[in-house]
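User: Show me a protein chain along with its predicted structure.
Assistant: Here is one chain, sequence first, then structure tokens.
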Amino acid sequence: MRAGLAAMHILVVAHNIVRGDGQGRVLYELVRRGSQAGHRFTCLADRFAEDLLGENVALIPIKPGFERPVLFKVLRFARLADRQLKRLDLKPDLSMTVGFTLRTPMDVSLAQFVHAAWMPVLRRYQSELSMAGIYQRLFTAINRRAEAKAYKDSRAIIAASALVRDNLVQFHQIPPKKVHVIHNAVDPDEFQEKTDDLQLQQHALDVRTSPIALFVGDIRTPRKNLDTVLKALVHVDGLKLRVAGDLRGSPFPALAKQLKVDNRVEFLVFRNDIADLCARSDFFVFPSRYEPFGLVVVEAMAAGLPVVTSKTTGASEVIRPEAGFVLDDPNDVTGLSSAMRRLTEDAVLRAQMSFESKQIAKRCNFDQMVESYLALLANLTIKH
């Protein structure tokens, strides 16, 4: 961590400041490592990691009272957070939040998703007008409008990828100089230690002969693009696919059966033990149609898995050709099946890419991410 930064008091307003959540993990590491470096944090949050509390970290709980539907929770949280800030006599050096979290203008907004960029993709691939489909469009439309105001009202935006930066410029006309790209990160040592132990156990017991690809993500919507993965699997003999995601209302088990690959696809319930899944897999496939970053991609690389993804996934920006395949078009069945086939048939290539994946993940670490955050926040404080 860079020395010499003056201690700051930072107000953070977010739904989640926890380890087991993508954007929540970013804030968790910022608060944890930033407070250890002497900075003070006041946090307004619904879900909060209690181990963060200490001399430099204070929590003001915001409990919206809703878990489902999420839209009600989001709107209720915003009202409660706005009301709480009016009551408090806080004078932080800087305030920050994630996208649309409240209506009170904040100094810094973390852009981990751009609903305006997702909306056209949703309209294209979700043709059914079921209640779930209508709800998703309503949720996206409301967040798109609220985010636009939040991003324009903030002094600076931290984008999780260059993809997000470009989305902000294109869809919300945000000046490029206002957007700072800081990639999300992973703890490579922690992740690799867990995975190495599990792989040793797995290799001692494993009698499989077929390579296994792993897919992790929401499989109830078209965003993560499991349909294209299943279509590509048809053309890759000898490959099995493990899918981890919430099966409730998912159309993909039926699609696997329709494509006659259901005997090679194992659908698992949603799981957080990504290290365990990676230890039992040979490569990771994730051609998401819209993914602002995709922390799971870097986690898979930290576990030593070659990856197959697409340019519409922000994490693709850190991948070199030696570590995986990045498709120009996430819907390219031919290109996807070709990449999956190469990794299925070439164990030497998998081993080479495994090594390179680990090296990239080591550079995408939380120390560097938090250092970049704090340096930017300090610079904004000076200009305040």
